[in-house]
Amino acid sequence: MTTLEALRARLEALLGTPYVWTEAARLAEYAMAVQTPRVVVRPETIEQTREVLALAGRERLAVVPWGQGTHMHLGALPQRYDLALSLVGLSRIVEYDVANLTLIAEAGLPLQQAYHVSIPERQVVPLGFPGSRASLGGLVVTNTSGVKRGRYGALRDVLLGMRVALPDGSLVRFGGRVVKNVAGYDMNKLFVGSLGAFGVVVETTWRLAALPEDDRLLAVVFPSLHQATTAAAAVQASQLLPAALTLWSAEAMATLGLPLTLQPEQVAMLVNFDGPHEAVARQIHDSQTYAQHHAGLEETLVTGEALFTLWERQERWQEAPQATEPARLQLRLGALPSHLEDVVRLLMTPQVFGHQGIRWYADYPQGQIYAHVPLEQSGVVDIGQAVSDWLAPLRTQLQRWHGYCAVQYAPARLRQQLDMWGEIPGGQLLRLYKHHFDPHGVLNPGRYAIGL
Amino acid sequence: METDQVLRELEAIVGPSNVLSSPADRTAYRYDASVFRGTMPLVVVFPDSARQIAQLVVWCHHHGIPYMARGSGTAISGAAVPTHGGVTIELSRMNRVLEIDTTNRIAVVEPGVINQDLKQILREHGYGHTYVPDPGSQAVSTIGGNVATNAGGMLCLKYGVTGNHILGLEVVLPNGEIIEVGGKIPDQPGADLTGLLVGSEGTLGIVTKIILRLQRLPEVVVTQLALFKTVDNAAQVVSAIMTDGILPAALELLDQAIMRVIDQAIHVGYPEHAGAALLIELDGLEDGMQRTLDRIAQICKANDVIRIETAANAEERARLWLSRRAAFGAMARLATHSYIVDGCVPRTKLPEALRRVVAIGKRYGLPIVNLAHAGDGNLHPGIPFHMRRPGETEKVLQAGREILEVCVELGGSITGEHGVGVEKQNDMALMYSPADLEVMRRIKLAHDPADLCNPKKIFPLHMLTDTTA
């Protein structure tokens, strides 16, 4: 393997001295749990990024790409880690075509910057929420859809094209800038949720949406999970067109800071509508009626700044806990709406490794449950084993219900021990693609599903 | 291998009555709805399960014989014709609707289910939901074929193409393995393999089961037909509607040439001086709809609209739609064949694209008519021609290629919804660099290193000469 000095010199020749770091403090900023890189680099252009990857491919250097670093807790830990490739230098808006509602931007651009540009034109990138620090490329490789997915589509639906740098030194373009394009394989999709296993996304093209005229959210408290679920099912079965429809446990609601107080068994339903004033008013009204029919208790309406804050707090759920917070697991479970109640009950079954106090919220129409599971280490000899023993039957049962469970965050030691991904449909294809795209395993080695 | 033995072995897999081998039968399978004639298949088989397909694929692999799956053969890009003979695997027997689950808004179907048959089942049994994708061929095309080509339709503007409605697939891979990708719940951990396989035109495997998304029927649907003096007026209206924040379900544009053709066929009564028509469909909630319609009327007025007609009931809606859907049928009155181009441009470039299409038509002496899914910038110039006249097909294809060059130059795509097939293999190089295509081809090589699964498609021919097949 190349000596550190030689490597540093070659990277400096490519990028310039100010963009290559080997100081311990800087390396520590890019640590993945216990591992730190040998070098941190920050290319300023797409071409430089391509060159860095080509070098990594030739020299078999393990690369961990970084966007804004908000989701680095996802996936398993990399098995090797030579180069931290920071993409924050790739933050240009390449083209914003207002009339055609498309935006092309480099992958390191934080979503909030995209909003800064598009809001004055009354348009939005329908991802995340307007204050999100997450980078556009990061959203792609983590498959993070927007909070208003019900109305504006998932990430896969609004991503039109991309440019990708590969470890063989190629820089390629997939998709296009038009909303309809079926020329060849839809390669964009390979990179959605790929955690950088097949290439480094360096530029992204998006379909924008017009900013709605009105935007309101109704939160209603229900006496029980069952009543809340039934109310959500009634909204879903109606003509209403919610942009978001979520259910929140009492403990989870406490993190949102809404002026509602829930007793431990109570569950809240949050339903968001946007569009023309008349349509929003009618849908809020109808939702209130459905809620009353299902024993809805207290309710509150959220709009404007308060709604913005709510989205921000919801998105925080996906981020890793602060160092000061107690240890926990963060799970994402797939649960058909018809099985949501069963899955929540299963999730809440007491386990040996932690106290009660699992908090969760569920995206009802999309069948996603996000859960925070506290880990209490006292009294359990091998917490990793205890969690694994709990996770395996949970996953088996979820599969019977067509669901799944991904561990999205675990403390460092557990992250090394646990199967973060679970079983992946079509895993054998991913292995073949990995061989063709990254034959020497230099991209995030071991971090992706099935050990890729 | 002797032909008799081939037949015996294949009959053992699918049953004796499910194999076609006479020259007359096989000849029919050299064609699809395109102007391209494929090679003669060795044999046509009709399996009825994923297991049989897996056996067929393994058999083909063992003997080094190419194969391709086929639905109803409505492709107009040559996607459904064999390039290298071999076994044509016809999926019409796999036409079961396996599951309809409106609580979870999904249905599970086999690939041979006809698109409109599923819609009809949903409608007749009062499910209150529908499957949205509506390619022009929906009355005959299979959902498997729609998945293979990632088919579009009129309602793409608001609801997206087929791929946006597919959650999961069961696929027989070229190595004979039966796998599932995606599932009933979105965002399965790992990559979006479903999205990658949709639109791969049957070159990466054979889809044997499809999990698709159902959608609630909208509360109201409003259909309007607006007539304008010029195409530019109509196109301007399209852009203004979209930037105003209105998202119609459909925005279909017709130019004067196609309006005349349609009028001759079904007597719509378009005024002489109308240079373009815009079919506008809005759906959603009743509340706020009137204000949206008023706003559209305002936009139309600002762009010299001649008149706007709003359908008052379902019959009138059907009549307005017929004035669009009858287009390709009406073209059959002009010549023995029609060649339909499928380019896509950024919406605002549509007027320029259409002007240049007309100019290309003049230069070639071809009477080009224009339809467009205008909201998406997806244009469908149609060229009626006589295939038997010497040199005419070549001329038409050449004009089509020039149109696609214009689309790419304007920042668009060589195909918005019809797929590459054999028609646009070489045009792929207009859109993608050699490196882009080489990397794209790695997917094909990963799935099908022997290049037997619908071989020699999608990629430019010059890339395909060095394959191992």
Q: Globular, elongated, flat, extended or rod-shaped: what is the shape of chain B? A: globular
How does the major sheet of chain A shape up?
8 strands, antiparallel
> Largest sheet of chain A, order of strands side by side?
15-12-14-13-17-18-16-19
- The overall pLDDT average of chain B reads 95
Q: Which blocks of ≥5 consecutive residues of chain B have pLDDT under 50?
A: none
Return the average pLDDT of chain A rounded to an integer: 95
Give the DSSP E fraction of chain B (strand runs of 2 or more residues).
15-25%
Largest interface: A-B, 88 and 92 residues
Radius of gyration of chain B from CA coordinates: 23 Å
Percent helix among the residues of chain B? 25-40%
Summarize the structure.
The complex is a heterodimer of chains A (452) and B (469). With 452 residues, chain A is an alpha+beta fold.
3D structure, described in words:
The complex is a heterodimer of chains A (452) and B (469). Chain A is an alpha+beta fold and 452 residues long. Helix content of chain A is 33%, strand content 22%. Chain A contains 16 helices and 19 strands. Chain A has helices at 4-15, 24-29, 46-59, 111-118, 136-141, 149-152, 155-158, 188-191, 225-237, 250-253, 277-293, 304-316, 340-347, 383-400, 412-417, 427-437, and strands spanning 20-21, 39-41, 63-66, 83-86, 93-97, 102-106, 123-124, 159-165, 171-175, 200-207, 209-210, 214-222, 244-249, 267-275, 299-303, 328-334, 359-363, 368-374, 404-409. In chain A, the strands form four sheets. Chain A has an eight-stranded antiparallel sheet with strand order 15-12-14-13-17-18-16-19. Chain A has a five-stranded antiparallel sheet with strand order 5-6-10-8-9. In chain A, strand 8 and strand 9 (171-175) form a beta hairpin. Chain A is globular. Chain A starts with a helix and ends in a 15-residue tail after the last helix. The model of chain A has no long low-confidence stretch (mean pLDDT 95). Chain B has 469 residues and is α+β, with helices and mostly antiparallel strands. In chain B, 35% of the residues lie in helices and 20% in strands. Chain B contains 16 helices and 19 strands. Chain B has helices spanning 3-14, 23-28, 50-63, 115-124, 143-149, 156-159, 193-197, 231-243, 256-266, 289-301, 314-325, 327-331, 350-364, 392-409, 428-431, 434-447; strands at residues 19-20, 43-45, 67-70, 87-90, 97-101, 106-109, 129-130, 166-172, 178-182, 206-213, 215-216, 220-228, 250-255, 276-284, 305-310, 337-340, 343-344, 369-373, 378-385. In chain B, a hairpin with a 4-residue loop joins strand 18 (369-373) and strand 19 (378-385). In chain B, helix 13 (350-364) runs antiparallel to helix 14 (392-409). Chain B is globular and about 70 Å long. Chain B starts with a helix and ends in a 22-residue tail after the last helix. The chains are: A alpha+beta (452), B alpha+beta (469).
